[in-house]
Amino acid sequence: MATDMVHVHNMFLRALNSIILQSPHVVKPGDIADLLAYTKTVVITIDAHHFGEEEYLFPALAAYTKNQDIMSANQAQHAAFHAGLSRLGEYCKSTSPDEYSHTTFKGLIDAFAPSLYEHLRDEIPTILALKVYPSDELRRMWVQAEKHIADVGSYDEMLPLAFGCMDRGFEGGRHKFPPAPWWVAWVVRYWFARRHQSVWRFNPCDMWGVPRPLTFLPIDI
């Protein structure tokens, strides 16, 4: 479960890094609209992940371990950045390209990013500490929590984001993540990604998990 959590957290970090690096160079109205849509999707996906944790994974772990506080520190960290993350999401939903301000946009990210990073870093040791419990049972709880991501977002937004932020070369390509059949990437690329195709220009990888040059980053940087 800890390895899967690392992959998910890395996905969030790659997406946010892609936004931070590219957003200063996005100036055309159509590109700004896609940037806002991409960022909104990142917010939705992070929310979906934490919704699954708080509603399903954390309570299941507390019940299984008979320790009601086992994930309390992680839940408190969620609260530390949730309001700032929500403000960014609202800005992306309510702002037109003409109203967009990169200064405002970056300020919204800067307001919660350190707390989010701290959480993404600190949660992994907490999960690793669960190794004293049977891995099959932990895996069952993880899978159950991840099933509920569609309660928060839609597959035609979250799946293209996820597959476009998964670096299959991470740690020498030793991991198979996401643990899905090979053809799923094709379905994501040619079905789910079609509706918002231009938005996925902001992904740091292609849908096969291969890193690529950032579209809006000047080549001389």
UniProtKB/TrEMBL annotation:
Tell me one Pfam family matched here.
Hemerythrin
The cross-references to CDD domains, in alphabetical order and at most eight, read:
Hr-like
Q: Where is the Hemerythrin-like domain?
A: 4-123
Please list the coiled coil stretches: none
Q: What is this protein called?
A: Hemerythrin HHE cation binding domain-containing protein
